[in-house]
Design goal:
The complex is a heterodimer of chains A (about 260) and B (about 325).
Chain A lengths: L10 H24 L5 H6 L1 H34 L5 H13 L2 H12 L6 H8 L7 H26 L3 H8 L4 H12 L1 H16 L3 H6 L10 H10 L3 H25 L5
Chain B lengths: L9 E5 L6 H9 L8 E4 L2 E5 L4 E2 L7 E4 L11 H11 L4 H14 L15 H14 L4 E5 L7 H16 L4 E6 L2 H7 L2 E6 L2 E6 L1 H6 L4 H7 L2 E14 L4 E16 L5 E3 L9 E13 L2 E6 L5 E5 L1 H6 L7 E6 L4 E5 L1
Parallel strand pairs in B: 1-7, 1-8, 5-6, 6-7
Antiparallel strand pairs in B: 2-3, 3-4, 8-9, 10-11, 11-17, 12-16, 13-14, 13-16, 14-15
Helix pairs in contact in B: 2-3, 2-4, 3-4
The chains are: A mainly alpha (about 260), B alpha+beta (about 325).
Chain lengths: ~260, ~325
Amino acid sequence: MARLSPQPFNLTLAILAGLGALFFALPLIGLLVQTPWASVPSILADPSVKTALELSLIASLASTGLACLLGVPLAWALARLHFPGKGLLRGIATLPMVLPPVVGGVALLLAFGRRGLIGGPIATATGFGLPFTTPGVIVAEAFVAMPFLVITVEAGLRSMDARFEEAARTLGASRWTVLRRVTLPLIRPSLAAGAVLAWSRALGEFGATITFAGNFPGTTQTAPLAIYIDLDSGRLPAAVVLSLLMIVVSLAVMVALRGRYLGDA
Amino acid sequence: MALKVERGQVAALLGPNGAGKTTVLRTLAGLVPLAEGRVVLDGHVLEDTARRLRVPAERRPVGMVFQDYLLFPHLSALENVAFGLRARGMGRKAARQAAADWLERLGLAVPSHARPATLSGGQRQRVALARALAIDPRMLLLDEPLSALDASIRAEVRQDLRRRLRGFSGVSLLVTHDPLEAIALADRLIVIESGRVVQAGTPAEVAQRPRSRYVADLVGVNLLRGRGRGDLIDIEGGGCLQAVEAGNGEVLAVIHPSSLSLWRARPVGSPRNLWSDRVTGLEWLGDRVRVQLAGPPALVAEVTPAAVAELELVEGTEVWVSVKATEVRVYPA
């Protein structure tokens, strides 16, 4: 990359850039100033806070796993196969990125709800329904998070030299072995970046989760939901502490990603 | 297009870029389906469009060395060579041992955990060859095996590759656009042009009797084996040529027919190589005439029809032949 020569100082640009930085920094500072540091240990020890955090962690990791399991093959099909309607499929697969999450939640209810397209017959046959259960949270989070994995992995597959796969096949590797021993190791950076992006999106999920899975402490109330409820019912310190914790996690992910995969600048 | 290569033979597919050489290899390897036709190896049908039969790439007994080698960058040299054995179900330990044996047989003295990126071009070429040979293929396909190498080490790697191919008992087919590479490595040349075989035969046959203008341009050179002695080469079958730095030992001398000059009387000048000779035949190829000379050494000169008329060349004409020492290209054989 060519190095830029030193730029002449421009006051207008400097002021606007400073305002932009403040715009991001002020909310963070506000949160830090308002944090009731003395009561942090007692808030963190509160069973309901702990439960929400645990559920958030478990559900976000499980939904990342689900997104990898289904998203990698989907990305592979989008990158490697030629079939009619591929553009439409890619559009559908990335739609949750631009869809308001609450709309995603409604759509999930209509498909997997107890009276939904697929959920109805399943509920009738087995009595099991996804909504308002922890698996429901996982499905809702995977729905909004998987597109991040699909597009990142698809880009990785496209930029990879597919002739490595051909070389592996001439050596006698089945398609499955090629995927496992050549393709996945070669796109590992994209896969890791996609998984982390999906995980952080799942961790912050609110709209689709509350719409599809509801807000039951212990089963479906994740940390973002708990923050909203705490705030709504006047428990500001608890909301602030939980928010701070989520900021710390997000920052850690950003820093880890920046160093390893997004390139340092 | 029909191709036939005998077991133990090294055939070179020679042709211009875009002639479809690489496609032929990819088809034989099973990476692209044949539009129409058959592929038979050792009596086993690998592909037959009439019978809708097709053995997939991973089940063909075919090893392939790719143009830029395509060594798996995330695996060590040893793991690259072991890959095919592992994919064919061999245990991890046995595969690694077999791979180590192959690397040793190919004279690769590199740490077995070295990644391909840390190897030199010549070492990578050998790892790629070991990887293809390790699966014990009955056909070996090589796509421009030397083109990824620096010119400085190409000659050495070419000699080494030639020995390896001689030692391989199956069918070898290599693709190249470099006539010298084809001549040096193969015992059979197949020249293709826009997807058609235009001539096939031993390198000497094709070089001495090119059947078309195109083949003449490509491989219609004088090819002489001999022994270097400083600036001199003793030609096999008689005769001696001056060359620049012929070196010592077995060499291959290449003289382009158009760099030979023909004279009716003994010329006065600087050419290092000058001798009298006799025309044994004339071959008209469009706007050029290939003049065969009795030798020794037996050579072909290429002149214009006007020169043929002026020199009154017919079969049996006595001529003086000259060639500058700098026009004699020498390669270690």
